[in-house]
Amino acid sequence: MSEPKKALVLLNMGGPDSVEAVEPFLYQLFSDRDLIQLPLGALLQKPFAKMISHFRAKTVRENYRRIGGKSPLLHWSRLQAEKTCDKLGEDWQAFVAMRYWGPRADEVVQRIVAQGIKEAVVVSLYPHYTGATTGSSIKDFKRAVSQHAPDLQCRYIEEWHDQDQYLDALAECVQDGLAQVPEAKRGKLTLLFSAHALPQKFIDRGDPYQQHVEETVAGVMERVGDYPCQIGYQSRSGPVKWMSPDTLDLIAAAGKERRSLLVIPVSFVSDHIETLEEVDVEFRDHAEEHGVSWFGRVPALNDRESFIEALAALVDKDEGVD
């Protein structure tokens, strides 16, 4: 009999698989205290999540309808896992665990155990570490391991914002995006890197997310050449102080100066609602409204060969597990 395979588990946030799933998905999201912490404590977390998910659902459902009625995040995450295992060899088996929608960590850990697998490498698909995303997903997976498979040996890869192969792959996306820019629009072109915003209090308490984003951008710019560039933060909502500058403000400023913009969604490794709807629809409309000379977005990493090689190199870097 052949030896049991090793598990490669990719972690991501997940997304609704239908418009009907939007409200329960949002409820799971807003219930996570690693992501959103109410000042009045944990007792109000779930009632708050119930209320805000109900009021937000109508708008969010329309956003998902504009991109086909569901999130493509599971599709891309599965492809990334499967193609990475193809690179690693026949000893590996691919799994994906989502934080706020299926397949959840409990289900995935139980499937791993049922197949007799003893070792797993668990990779966060968020390159830039924050307790709100990677931290929450890793904590959730470790809880599931403790509950269902305490003998499963796991190695966790929690941050890789400066990995050379990842930076090469992202720079390749930027070069593909630059090829879209009309020659007449290149003279006043700005590369606008847009990352998902966090409440400023995360950064103030020592979360390395912003530093990681800035280091990624510096690494990409070393590879793509001498272009003006900016970093903005998107997807801000709610009455808290957020990281700045807001990507929307940078777009408006570019319009005043009649600049061209090429947007690089830097904190996302695949297409989903923040790229397909927020950038491609909302940001494009905002750019047109404010007089941006030309607006484009680089292709997402998705299952790009160079990105799959980067993931395989991450997994293959060390032999041991912890």
UniProtKB/TrEMBL annotation:
<feature type="binding site">
    <location>
        <position position="196"/>
    </location>
    <ligand>
        <name>Fe(2+)</name>
    </ligand>
</feature>
<dbReference type="GO" id="GO:0004325">
    <property type="term" value="F:ferrochelatase activity"/>
</dbReference>
<dbReference type="InterPro" id="IPR001015">
    <property type="entry name" value="Ferrochelatase"/>
</dbReference>
<feature type="binding site">
    <location>
        <position position="274"/>
    </location>
    <ligand>
        <name>Fe(2+)</name>
    </ligand>
</feature>
<comment type="function">
    <text>Catalyzes the ferrous insertion into protoporphyrin IX.</text>
</comment>
<dbReference type="InterPro" id="IPR033644">
    <property type="entry name" value="Ferrochelatase_C"/>
</dbReference>
<keyword id="KW-0963">Cytoplasm</keyword>
<comment type="pathway">
    <text>Porphyrin-containing compound metabolism; protoheme biosynthesis; protoheme from protoporphyrin-IX: step 1/1.</text>
</comment>
<dbReference type="GO" id="GO:0046872">
    <property type="term" value="F:metal ion binding"/>
</dbReference>
<keyword id="KW-0627">Porphyrin biosynthesis</keyword>
<comment type="similarity">
    <text>Belongs to the ferrochelatase family.</text>
</comment>
<dbReference type="InterPro" id="IPR033659">
    <property type="entry name" value="Ferrochelatase_N"/>
</dbReference>
<keyword id="KW-0408">Iron</keyword>
<keyword id="KW-0479">Metal-binding</keyword>
<dbReference type="GO" id="GO:0005737">
    <property type="term" value="C:cytoplasm"/>
</dbReference>
<protein>
    <recommendedName>
        <fullName>Ferrochelatase</fullName>
        <ecNumber>4.98.1.1</ecNumber>
    </recommendedName>
</protein>
<dbReference type="GO" id="GO:0006783">
    <property type="term" value="P:heme biosynthetic process"/>
</dbReference>
<dbReference type="Pfam" id="PF00762">
    <property type="entry name" value="Ferrochelatase"/>
</dbReference>
<keyword id="KW-0350">Heme biosynthesis</keyword>
<keyword id="KW-0456">Lyase</keyword>
